[in-house]
Amino acid sequence: MKGNVSMKKAVLILASAMMFTTCASAQSTENILRNEVLQNISEDAVKEAVSLGIIEEGELTKELSREEFCGLVYNMINKVKELPQAKLAENPFSDVTDYKINALYVSKIISGRDDHIFAPNDKITREEAAGIIYRTAEYAGKELPMVKIDINYADNDKISQWALPCVYGLRVLNVIDDSEKEFNPQSGVIKQRAAEVLVKMYNILK
After folding, report:
1. Radius of gyration of the chain (CA)
2. Any idea what DSSP says for residue 65?
3. How many angstroms separate the CA atoms of 13 and 33, rounded?
4. What's the CA gap between 164 and 79, in Å, rounded?
5. CA 173, CA 43: separation in Å to the nearest integer?
6. Which residues are CB-contacts of 126 (< 8 A; sequence separation ≥ 6)?
7. What pLDDT digit, counting tens, does each position of 116-129 carry?
């Protein structure tokens, strides 16, 4: 009798283990397939960004500086709605003379770290990038949806108050991937990621 009970327990344990392994394997396969799909989407976006002249071919995993990112934004939005040729005298920043920065500033798409400092060599953060991309949509006359600031991101409390409408606005427009669990607002932006979101925004605005 005890032998039968032990045998039944062994069978149940083995069956449970097999079910767990099957579920884990299925989840792993799903993750692999999803990653492959995302990789293909990313590669297509980079190719489109290059063909549109938004980015140049080169190292895609490099974190972008504020000046570099704004240069890519200029390339994108200027194809949708021509930016003004701002005069150098209108440049308020003492640490940069890039005409693209000047045009974006005059168009109210970007601002500095303070009244006279742009900090062109500092890395662009994810929340800064979200704010800039959001304002390109405003500049282009895109009617932006009313958004609900919820707590979908685990690090929602780390996103600056001024950036929250921009981040969630881009989520509603599907410019930002809403499957991410955290936004990581102070993290940098690599060139590949910039290409993806700028191509998405270009296709929305064109």
Report:
1. 23
2. B
3. 30
4. 27
5. 21
6. 183, 184, 185, 186, 187, 188, 189
7. 999 999 999 999 99
The predicted-structure confidence for 138-187, as pLDDT tens digits, reads as follows 999 998 877 777 768 889 999 999 999 999 999 888 998 877 889 999 99
Of 121, 122, 85, residue with least CA distance to 102? 85
Phi, psi of 100 (to 5 degrees): -70, -40
Distance (Å, rounded) from C-alpha 44 to C-alpha 54?
14
The alpha carbon torsion through 189, 191, 193, 194 (nearest 10 deg) reads: 80
What b/e sequence results for 89-110 when a residue is b if at least 16 CB atoms lie within 10 Å of its CB, and e otherwise?
eebebeebebebbbbbbbbebb
Q: Which of 125, 137, 140 is closest to 172 using CA atoms? A: 137
Which amino acid, residue 88?
L
Length of the chain, in residues: 206
- Three-state secondary structure readout of 17-50: HHHHHHHHHHHHHHHHHHHHHHHHHHHHHHHHHH
- Residue in this structure with the two tokens 């079910």, named with its chain if needed: 19
Residue that has been written with the tokens 């607002």 in this structure: 185
